[in-house]
Amino acid sequence: MAFPERFSNLPDYAFPRLRKLLDTHAPGGPVIHMTIGEPRHPMPAFVGPILAQSLEGFGVYPPNDGTPELLAAIADWVQGRYGVALSPERIMALNGTREGLFNAAVALSAETKRGKRPVILMPNPFYQVYAVAALTVGAEPVYVPATAETGFLPDYEGLPAEVLDRVTVAYLCSPANPQGVVAPADYLARLMALAERHDFRIFADECYSEIWRDAPPPGALAVAEAHGVDPERVAVFHSLSKRSNLPGLRSGFVATGPQSMARIRQLRSFAGAPLPLPIQRVSEAAWRDEAHVAESLALYQAKFRMADEVFAGRRNRVSPEGGFFLWLPVPEGDGEAAALKLWRETGVRVLPGAYLSRDAGGENPGKGHIRVALVAPQTELQHGLTRLRDCLYD
């Protein structure tokens, strides 16, 4: 029986790879998980009551694109957060951003560009769905290093013109997973100008936008509006997973221009799965409430300060501007070896950076790093960070 070749070169996903690396070895201490970016702050108190009041909604097919109430709540949130007015026709509810980041490429990336195989750009390291989306639509994934030398943002402007002319989509995550850097407004504006010159779309993954150190990150929608960029040029993706500590709700949204949204909605009508109605009711309440977001942000900002204190004086420390990961360069430049040493000697579990990257130009930009998730309760987190520091950096 034949199988498609387009996914034949995919590596194992990050977490199965991690289990293969670590699980044949005994932990060297009480286990502390600092690998997966699963928020562990309290979810909003209103979730249970709204679900209980909405149970009958599981007995009906839900609105495909989102209820009018949910789309209005999202539009109001975008207006309040970014000062951008969106009509409901420019928004669609998602089963988390991963669904949207994948399906938007299917809906919007053309089969050819200038008579050649299209290119989809992505930062390297990156959220792995970007690469699978590119392969699914027959595009060439181009992995653009996002390292200390580039300010941890991909230098798309430095790519050859013949590559840029084949680009259909450029992915960008800000705040970045895993590096925690925030793309400034001028970077976003230059990227949009580049997209206008070479006629491609920007997919702005902003799911960490409400977790930041000093100031709210700028949004692609606001920058696009300020510079008069065609709304069809930019699609943004947001989620309640990180903002509201609801990763299991699988709820987010995509917003873009009306023509692009019509294509995305058309694909959803044939092949997508809308959010169950009770989930949409909870989502509506979550987008309309900022109190729980502020409480969670304060906890993350306390964790940033804790990490600063634990790693004070270490040259290897890299403090995030946003998101909830530390992206730490490791001694000897081998993240796998560092993760295994840490597990065997302390019981602390972290993710090798190479598992989030691809070899490109003979280099894997994540190889010399580990990713550390700042999601555990503060006492547990302090123990984990201290053990990590003492094991790898002292």
From TrEMBL:
Entry keywords, A to Z: Aminotransferase, Transferase
First and last residue of the signal peptide: none
GO MF terms held by the record: pyridoxal phosphate binding; transaminase activity
Top-level taxon of the source organism: Bacteria
The keyword Manganese appears for this protein: no
UniProt protein name: Aminotransferase class I/II-fold pyridoxal phosphate-dependent enzyme
Domain Aminotransferase class I/classII large: 32-387
Transferase recorded as keyword: yes
Family annotation (Pfam families): Aminotran_1_2 (PF00155)
Cofactor: pyridoxal 5'-phosphate
Gene3D superfamilies membership: Aspartate Aminotransferase, domain 1 (3.90.1150.10), Type I PLP-dependent aspartate aminotransferase-like (Major domain) (3.40.640.10)
UniProt cross-references to InterPro entries, sorted A to Z: Aminotransferase_I/II_large, LL-DAP_aminotransferase, PyrdxlP-dep_Trfase, PyrdxlP-dep_Trfase_major, PyrdxlP-dep_Trfase_small
Lineage, uppermost ranks: Bacteria, Pseudomonadati, Pseudomonadota, Alphaproteobacteria, Rhodobacterales
Cited SUPFAM superfamilies: PLP-dependent transferases (SSF53383)
